[in-house]
Amino acid sequence: MKLLVLGSGTSTGVPRVGNDWGACDPDNPKNRRSRVSIIVEADDGQRVLVDTSTDLRQQLLANDIDAIDAVFWTHDHADHCHGIDDLRVLRYGRGGPIPGYAASETVRRLRQRFGYVFAGQHGYPTIVTVDTLDRLRLVAGMSVEWTQCPHGPAQSTAFRFSSGNHSIGYATDFSEITGDLVYTMEGVDILVVDCLRREPHPTHAHLGMALELAERCDAKRVILTHLDKSMDYDVVAAETPEHVEPAFDGMVVTL
After folding, report:
1. Which terminus of the chain has fewer CB atoms gathered within 10 Å of its CB, N or C?
2. For 211-238, how does the pLDDT look when each residue is reduced to its tens digit (9 = 90+)?
């Protein structure tokens, strides 16, 4: 399997508009962070995209991605879905729409806001067919497990993708470690986990919570994502255990 981190930043990215780098060293390219999104690739080369971030077009160009086999959404907040129109180009040349999946409430909200994507409009074809996760077990050569997580007053979906003997977990935008989340991520090879900052936050995991989840589920390798401007790459890498590291845009991990 292969993990590609398309974006590793918080909703405002790093730097923030105004060239605000916070505590991040602007001379380190690993501190330049677009909004969060990943691609997971199965051992047969099929790819799934998780979230259509606001920066999706540039992320696809930067990583030479011109095709995916399915798309998943964690939730409908702007930084996770407002790049949805950039899926149009990935629809070109396909025999049909891209399969899409999300939790039922996220599906409802996406349909409400982006109806043309899922139903076509004015002669343009449907870009994505979206369905709920309820009966989904296998997609793009990978088995899929999922669980809902508190995200402040909202909810976000965490995913685990498995192919052969390998597994990659993705848990971003959560504010509480639930028993179901620990169970879903138990023994995962790679855990990509929400880690907004060091101090607690009402809607996101902080560093201590991210490390707690990693320990409780016995993740073999941990990659911290959704990092804000207080989380300098080199500083965070130096203060975390050997099997834990901050994500960066364009990061590739192969199992």
Report:
1. C
2. 999 999 999 999 999 999 999 999 999 9
- Helix, strand and coil content of the chain, in percent to the nearest 5, comes to 25, 30, 45
Rounded-to-integer distance, Cα 22 and Cα 176, Å: 26
Residues comprising the chain, all counted = 255
Q: What is the 3-state secondary structure (H, E, C) of 69-110?
A: CEEECCCCCHHHHCCHHHHHHHHCCCCCCEEEEECHHHHHHH
Residues in Cβ contact with 19 at an 8 Å cutoff, skipping those fewer than 6 apart: none
DSSP 158-182: EEEEEETTEEEEEE-S-SS--HHHH
3-state SS, residue 62: helix
Q: Are 7 and 33 in contact (CB under 8 A)?
A: yes
Amino acid, res. 191: L
DSSP three-state, residue 227: strand
Q: What is the pLDDT of residues 150-159, one digit of tens each?
A: 999 999 999 9
How far apart are the C-alpha atoms of 10 and 177, rounded to whole Å? 20
Residue in the structure block whose two tokens are 């971003």: 172
User: Can you tell me which residue has the tokens 């192969």?
Assistant: 254
Task: Enter the pTM of the model.
Answer: 0.97
Give the phi and the psi of residue 193 in degrees, each rounded to 5.
-135, 140
